[in-house]
Amino acid sequence: MNVEADGLFGAPPITVVVGEEVHPSLLKALGLLGLGRNRVVKVPLDSQGRMRPEAIPFVTSPALVCTQVGNVNTGACDPVGDICERTRTSGVWVHVDGAFGLWAAASPSLAYLTDGVEQADSWATDAHKWLNVPYDSNTARLRESEA
């Protein structure tokens, strides 16, 4: 049994949906959490590296869709609002990995790239990517304080 790759034996399965160019740190985190790096569903991307909402399979809770705002390879931002609309009725948690691109929300000329991120359930970003602070300066936020 390989817990990092296949998840915890006997634990209820949690479906995790990611784009084909998911950042390796997210897969590493899934392994550390016991969710299994090999149990993810990878969704095809468009020509710019954005997750295609129509390609997300129908999943029900417990499930997690991990979007990217700032693809590490292209800088592309997933259409988070469209993804939230597609998954919301089935109780799926939508997370935004905003390490590279979530800071665009602060720029009037780039904020459109983050349209719809407010509909997500959680967000994470790395201050060291843009704000020139120490490497381990990260933030995580949840939409609902109860979570």
TrEMBL record:
Database matches in SUPFAM superfamilies: PLP-dependent transferases
Modified residues (N6-(pyridoxal phosphate)lysine): 129
MF terms in GO: aromatic-L-amino-acid decarboxylase activity; pyridoxal phosphate binding
The UniProt record lists the keyword Lyase: yes
Gene Ontology cellular-component terms listed: cytoplasm
GO biological process, one term: carboxylic acid metabolic process
Cofactor(s) needed by this chain: pyridoxal 5'-phosphate
Keyword list, A-Z: Decarboxylase, Lyase, Pyridoxal phosphate
Source organism, top-level taxon: Bacteria
Similarity comment text for this entry: Belongs to the group II decarboxylase family.
PANTHER family the UniProt entry points to: CYSTEINE SULFINIC ACID DECARBOXYLASE (PTHR45677:SF8), GLUTAMATE DECARBOXYLASE-RELATED (PTHR45677)
Protein name: Pyridoxal-dependent decarboxylase
Species of origin: Scytonema hofmannii PCC 7110
